[in-house]
Write a structure and sequence with these properties.
CATH class of the largest domain: Alpha Beta
GO molecular function, one term: NADP binding
Pfam family, one: NADAR
CATH architecture of the largest domain: 3-Layer(aba) Sandwich
GO biological process, one term: riboflavin biosynthetic process
Mean pLDDT: 86
InterPro entries: CMP_dCMP_dom, Cytidine_deaminase-like, DHFR-like_dom_sf, Eubact_RibD, NADAR, RibD_C, RibDG_C, Riboflavin_Biosynth_HTPR
Pathway: Cofactor biosynthesis; riboflavin biosynthesis; 5-amino-6-(D-ribitylamino)uracil from GTP: step 3/4
Length: about 600
């Protein structure tokens, strides 16, 4: 047993060098992390990938993943490097692996002749962990994963490693804890008040600080506030920017003692979710629903329950902008990972003036929660203090885990979890994420004139079909913009926004035509990519369910009572592909038999 264990360790060590990186390695890996984070606020939070290709100190190619469903960082870097990628070193902040069936990142590095790959952090998701590392090694590249001998490395590589962790902190927290990464933000006076004793809080912090908050909102999947904030401040919780990602607004209120009219009930540009306890003010729930606000009931409304719900919706990053009454239980329940405090050089005084964190039950200073990785920054006249309440999960590669990953890859079936009776899919980075309409697989289909048009994803095609044939300038402009959209997220936002704001521009037959449009797009996708067709066929016998918490038509909904039309269409397509495969096998058998008899 001991000899066998050593043999396995030696096998894996061959693909994971533990050599101490050079100063060039540190600089290029840090640059890869910076590239990965350069999209912040432009698209919804997702695994962040950056790639730098270099010969020694000279960089010959760079790239970063703009959004899920777009061209990988590695492909971009190889394209920019051209022939100079041969025998170069590729620096990756995160091990490749965004969507099953899309091996373009690894294939690009292998075909370009990259001889060495330095990986900052191995992929934290179990179904992707070690997969690309093994594939790159099998392609002949020397693969080095930073972090194994971190203490023996210099400060430069430690800084780069930390940057690789930070740029994907939400993904690491989600993978380790089973909940999204949460950042608690607040602004207070220098004497610790977030508002006057009357509740007035406009404005505690400076214009510069508020601009920073807008940027943080754009980097989040959702913003959480409590009922007190809605009643007192009537916030909009927008990003105050043209374009870019728009987070969902989440209101937590057990009794729904909320105003009839509030800025958050305007969902023309972005969605609002009100979370409450079962049975609370059914008449008010009906009013919110009539305005397009989604209401979600819980048996018992707690910060942990809401974060579990956000996890199931596929969220990575949550920004909490609540008052002390909600921030205290959020901290106590362990759902807050980081604190972001703006301290304004003002004094307001007052014994009853609210503070940023309510009662935590601590009676001695020794019980105080200690922040780690504390940083200070002056923002305008304010001081910004940030720190971690929970350390970033350490995702060091270990030999047993990589051996298991390698064994899974060597099986005849793609490295997916053992097939359950029901297969859920939603985000492209999920185990069956290639079934998602946001997966990075362009399709080509004829338009109404017969001309073949290329679409960057199924979502691009589907959203555009809402307005195809409508003789109105806005509708035609929207179709054009959707086709040019850089990501499926942008395409979805364009289509959904116009449909909400101008329902009269949606084609009259859309209630029926949307099923045909989706069926056409799915057929084009799964017949154009052999890997996707094979993936779909491996699900034979299982029920496919789009695990969307809010889409009652295409998905299953939170309670599983949605129509799951996307899952049904995929299963119908699977049946047709299986039948076609069987017919081809029968035809081949008959042909061989006829030839033999002749």
């Amino acid at each position: 047993m001991h000899v066998q264990a050593l043999s396995l360790r030696a096998c894996v060590s061959a693909q994971l060098s533990t050599s101490i990186p050079s100063s060039d390695d540190s600089r290029h890996l840090l640059r890869a992390a910076e590239l990965a984070g350069s999209l912040a606020g432009l698209s919804a939070p997702h695994p962040n990938f950056g790639c730098v290709i270099a010969h020694g100190p000279k960089v010959v190619g760079e790239g970063f993943l703009y959004a899920q469903g777009t061209k990988s960082a590695e492909v971009q870097a190889v394209e920019r490097a051209g022939e100079l990628a041969k025998n170069a070193t590729a620096y990756l902040n995160l091990e490749p692996g965004d969507c099953h069936g899309d091996d373009s990142a690894v294939r690009a590095l292998r075909e370009a002749g990259v001889s060495r790959v330095v990986v900052g952090v191995p992929h934290p998701l179990q179904h992707l962990h070690g997969k690309a590392i093994k594939a790159l090694h099998q392609g002949g590249a020397k693969v080095e994963v930073v972090g194994q001998n971190l203490l023996e490395s210099g400060s430069g590589i430690q800084e780069a490693f930390k940057a690789c962790q930070l740029v994907n902190a939400p993904l690491l927290y989600r993978a380790a804890n089973g909940i999204p990464y949460s950042l608690l933000k607040y602004a207070m006076t220098v004497d610790g008040k977030i508002a006057a004793s009357t509740g007035h809080s406009t404005w505690v912090s400076s214009t510069e600080s508020r601009k920073r908050v807008f940027e943080m909102r754009a980097r989040s999947d959702a913003i959480v506030v409590g009922g007190n904030t809605v009643r007192r401040d009537n916030p909009r919780l927008t990003t105050r920017q043209e374009g870019g990602h728009l987070p969902v607004r989440i209101v937590m209120s057990r009794c729904l003692n909320l105003p009839m009219d509030a800025n958050l009930w305007d969902v023309s540009t972005t969605q609002t979710i009100v979370t409450t306890q079962k049975g609370a003010r059914q008449d008010f729930q009906a009013l919110l629903a009539s305005r397009g606000v989604e209401v979600v009931e819980f048996d018992f409304l707690t910060p942990r329950a809401v974060m579990d719900y956000c996890y199931n919706r596929g969220y990575l990053s949550i920004l909490w902008e609540c008052g002390g009454m909600l921030s205290a239980p959020a901290i106590a329940s362990g759902v807050i990972q980081k604190v972001m405090a703006f301290i304004s050089p003002k004094i307001i005084g007052g014994i009853t003036a609210p503070t940023p964190v309510g009662e935590l039950g601590m009676v001695e200073m020794t019980q105080a929660l200690q922040l780690s990785d504390v940083a200070f920054e002056q923002v305008g006249p304010d001081m910004l203090v940030t720190g971690l309440l929970q350390p970033i999960p350490h995702c060091q590669p270990n030999v047993p885990a990589l051996v298991e990953a390698a064994a899974a890859m060597d099986s005849t079936i793609p490295s997916l979890p053992q097939r359950p009776q029901v297969i859920y899919f939603y985000k492209p980075w999920d185990p069956y994420g290639a079934l998602s309409n946001f997966s990075p697989h362009p399709i080509s289909l004829p338009d109404e004139t017969g001309a073949v048009i290329s679409w960057n994803s199924v979502e691009h095609y589907y959203q555009a079909q809402k307005f195809v044939g409508v003789k109105h300038e806005l509708a035609q402009e929207c179709v054009h913009n959707i086709r040019l959209a850089k990501s499926p997220e942008v395409a979805a936002r364009l289509g959904r926004t116009l449909a909400r704001q101008r329902p009269d521009l949606v084609r009259a037959d859309w209630a029926v035509a949307k099923l045909c449009a989706m069926e056409t797009a799915l057929h084009a996708k799964f017949t154009s990519y052999p890997a996707l067709r094979d993936l779909l066929l491996t699900t034979a016998g299982a029920v496919l369910v789009e695990a969307s918490q809010n889409d009652m038509f295409w998905g299953a909904g939170r309670s599983g009572d949605g129509e799951n039309k996307l899952g049904l269409l995929l299963m119908q397509l699977r049946t047709k592909l299986l039948q076609r495969s069987e017919d081809n096998n029968v035809h081949s058998t008959v042909t061989r038999s006829t030839t033999s008899e002749s």
